[in-house]
Structures are given as C-alpha cells and as structure tokens.
Amino acid sequence: MAERTIIEITGEDRIKFLQGVITNDAARLADGPVYAAMLTPQGKFVVDFFLVPEGDKILLDVAAEEADGLLKRLTLYKLRSRVGLTKTDRKVSRGIWEPGEGAVADPRAPEMGWRAYDGRPSQDVDWDAIRVANCIPETGIELTPDTYILEAGFERLHGVDFRKGCYVGQEVTARMKHKTDLRKGLRTVGIAGEAPVGTEIVTEDGKPAGTLFTRSGEKAIAFLRFDRARGVLHAGDARITAGD
Known about the structure:
Elements: E1 4-10, H1 14-19, E2 34-39, E3 45-54, E4 57-63, H2 64-78, E5 84-87, E6 93-95, E7 104-105, E8 114-116, H3 127-134, H4 170-178, E9 184-192, E10 200-202, E11 208-216, E12 219-225, E13 232-235, E14 238-241
Antiparallel strand pairs: 1-4, 1-5, 2-3, 3-4, 6-8, 7-8, 9-12, 9-14, 10-11, 10-13, 11-12, 13-14
C-alpha cells in the first residue's frame, strides 16, 4: 500500500476555509468522510485526498509524496482564516473485511472498503485489482498534472459537487460538466500481452487512441479517446480490447 500522510486541520474556520479550495462540499463532513481534490485555476488536477471528521478537527489523508506540497498550498490559501494545519505521524490502515469500530467507509466506492487512523493493522488486499475492476484512479499513475477530474471519473467517485459554489478551478470544471460532452476519459479495458504503464494506445491503423495505465491480470485502466476506443487497439506488444 502506498504511504499516506495525515494532516490535522483545526480551528473554527476549518469548514469555511476548505469550502473555497476543494472540489467537494465540505459541509458533507457532517455526515462522514469526503473525497475531494484541489485544482489549478485552469481546472487541472493538483492533488486528491480524503477528509475525515474527528471531533473538533478534520483529518486530511493524502499520498505521502504530495503532503508537503499540499501543506504549502493550503498555508498559502489560509491567509487570515482561523485555521491550524499540522502534519502528523498518524498512520492509515485499510481493508475490505470486518472494519470494526472506528473505521470509516471509503467514500469513492463500496468496493474500496474502509480506512482507519487508530494504528490497527491493514489487511492484505490486492488494491490494484480492485482499482482496475472499478476504474478508480490513483495519484501519480492515472492522476497527473494534465488530468481534468471529470475525465478521471470524479463525479462517479463522489469527488466533486456542482452546487457548492466557487472554488479554485471551479469555472473550468463546471463548463466541462454543463457545456460539453466528454470526448476522453478513463476506462477499464481488456489486455493481452505486455506493455508498461504509460505506453501509447493506438488503433489498428496506427492512430493515437490513448494511454495505458494500471494493469491487473487481463484488465487495465486506460485513458482513451472515445471516438477511437472501439474494437481492438494496441499498446506496444499488448492487445487492448476497449469494447464499444
């Protein structure tokens, strides 16, 4: 399991502060964990994370390699808000069986199981297999600085809210939702043969059709151009079956 870092967010302005910078509705924390992201002003992906309410604070659960950059960005946006941001040494536990008291459901999809922050051991789970089967992207693989979150499935994964009001990158995201049809995006595909992550996917006649990402067995996550994602495609020596 990839390393995670927990940042504690405290202070009376914590909900109001988050509301202006994340893609989801921070008010939903009253009901449990929230999955969200931060974007650039141009609407592109910066980082994704989980927000988990815990008493008078919020736990922000983020990929460890992204923690320092996120903390710096949050501090920049904080200005005079009455908010505290503290990087901790708390650990994340994950599993899909018998969560027990104190665990919280992963808000992206039921198949992603539970998360906990109390030091319990994680369960031995093939997370890539679950991610691939459910087309769930991961930071640093499918989610990159070139990603638009709607193309990455954030609406399906409960990671964006279109009624909450303004946040950084909101205008571009709203325009993609209401004024355009998505022409590209992540899909689970069939794969036979070998090809590394990042291999270009092409049509039978050699036209660019997308990029190959995480693989598990005979399935993989791919970023595809929908107008070319039909029938048999190729990624290096691998044969890609995209379906209709």
